[in-house]
Amino acid sequence: MKTDLCKLLNIEYPIIQGGMAWVATAPLAATVSNAGGLGIIAAGNAPADYVLEQVRKAKTLTNKPFGVNVMLLSPFAGEVMKMLCEEKVAVVTTGAGNPGKYIASLKEAGIKVIPVVPSVTIAKKMERDGADAVIAEGTESGGHIGELTTMALVPQVVDAVNIPVIAAGGIADSRGVVAALALGAVGVQLGTRFLCSEECTAHENYKNAVVEAKDRDAVVTGRSTGHPVRGIKNKLTRGFDKLEKEGASVEEIEKFGAGALRNAVVDGDVEMGALMAGQSAGLVCDIKPCEEIINDLVGGLGEVLKRIDSII
To answer: Which of 4, 41, 47 lies closest to 23 in space, CA to CA?
Structure first.
């Protein structure tokens, strides 16, 4: 299972672990990298000193390449980017904004830049700005989402740009990997599947809620705010729905959800915590080590391809 992404990032398998705020910490990122994929630390809204601590911790846990995801709406984004250039991490992925003003300095530091994109227009803009690749993320993903599905978005982005495209959103097993490659992607990014790993530091209540989720349990809230979020339905999501139907202001909605992700990840609150997860939650049936997850993804490819071969 070798693609252009393996050569670009110096990794064994074209598998990237998603940058999930509060979830994607140094132990998870290092373990994924040690298993042959690319682990990602999520900067989220954290200040640069916290992200630096995570980066240096990851360096003690792996000698393989790993990356950092920078959420560009963070007030600390500029400081985090400066620190990452100094630390010369292997890869920076970005979300929730345009990383254009940072790309030149990141590449000057020898860092590969891979923005997450929700549309063809933004993918083309990232290519013009010098991105090394893009992650085309469909609306099936967890957390903040776009509108296009992975099935529709990935081939359109592949046709529109000349840089490598990684598929994300709704992928959790070998069947999803094969589908992504068939759509023209050179690799995949998985978030929800790696959330449910033994090395992930998220609370066990959160992980179990994802494992127990059914196909229609990953719902979207916050569309009225312009920043829709997908997560497992619970008392919090019902509260968001009620506020939106009542015409609550963006400020009221944001206040209602303040601290909810931390409540889920750290405290294990499965009622009022934000259980961010994608539609692939319905495919996740257990919690296992990252190495086994990657082995399953790679080891199952042959069986999937045999089924396809028997048809065609």
So the answer is: 41
Structure tokens at 37: 């994929």
Cα torsion 14, 175, 281, 90 to 10°: value is 0
CB 260 within 8 A of CB 274: yes
Tell me how far apart the alpha carbons of residues 190 and 280 are, in angstroms, rounded to a whole number: 9
Q: At residue 305, does pLDDT exceed 90?
A: no
CA distance 188 to 190: 7
| Residue at 262: amino acid letter | R
CB 230, CB 220: distance < 8 Å: yes
Reference 32, options 47, 42, 18; nearest CA is 18
Report CA torsion sign: 199, 264, 285, 14.
Answer: negative
**Per the structure block, which two tokens stand in for 192?**
């929800």
Quote the mean pLDDT of the chain: 94
What's the token pair of residue 130? 């010098």
- For residue 266, the number of C-alpha atoms closer than 13 Å in the C-beta half-sphere is 8
Other beta carbons within 10 angstroms of residue 45's beta carbon come to 15
Q: Which residues make Cβ contacts (< 8 Å) with residue 49, sequence separation at least 6?
A: none
Mean pLDDT value across residues 278-303: 93
* Cα dist from 251 to 172, 247, 258, whole Å: 35, 11, 10
Degrees, nearest 5: CA angle 117-156-158: 80
- Sheet with 143-144, edge to edge strand ranges: 143-144, 229-232, 218-221
Q: What is the pLDDT of residues 91-139, one digit of tens each?
A: 999 988 889 899 999 999 999 999 999 999 999 999 999 999 999 999 9
218-221 and 229-232 strand pairing: antiparallel
